[in-house]
Specification:
The protein is built from 1 helix and 9 strands; from the N terminus they run H-E-E-E-E-E-E-E-E-E. It has 105 residues and is mainly beta. The strands form 2 sheets. The protein has a 5-stranded mixed β-sheet, with no helix packed on it. The chain has a 4-stranded mixed β-sheet with strand order 2-1-4-7, with no helix packed on it. It is globular. 16% of the residues are buried. The structure holds copper (II) ion (CU). Copper (II) ion is lined by residues 58, 91, 93-94, 97.
Length: 105
């Protein structure tokens, strides 16, 4: 938890309503060896949840080395976005599977 996050949560608690932080979870599906949507925009602090609907494992591997997430068959995997930037990623097992993540501050 970053200090930036603590204040809004404390404020929400004081108001008597707990509002979970603004962070969103954005789902990206992997089905039939296709990443969909191919381009996703999210904010720092958001989570990306990849949903592998295939019967083979996939990865979300950033070309710039920022992340390398393995998504087992019929499972999901989540990554919390920590920094802004545009990241192209692909599947190490199926290099034709490509997508872009645009992370805004
Ligand atoms: Cu794959």
């Amino acid at each position: 938890m970053t200090p930036r996050r603590i204040l809004p949560i404390a404020a929400a608690l004081l108001l008597g309503t707990f509002v979970s932080a603004h962070a969103a979870t954005i789902q990206i599906s992997m089905e039939n060896l296709v990443v969909s949507p191919a381009e996703t925009t999210a904010k720092v602090g958001d989570s990306i949840e990849w949903i592998n609907k295939d019967i083979v494992a996939h990865t979300a591997t950033a070309r710039n080395g920022d992340f390398d997430v393995t998504i087992p068959p019929k499972k999901t995997a989540t990554l919390v976005l920590k920094k802004a930037g545009t990241v192209d990623y692909y599947c190490r097992f199926h290099p034709n599977m490509k997508a872009t993540l645009v992370v805004t501050p």
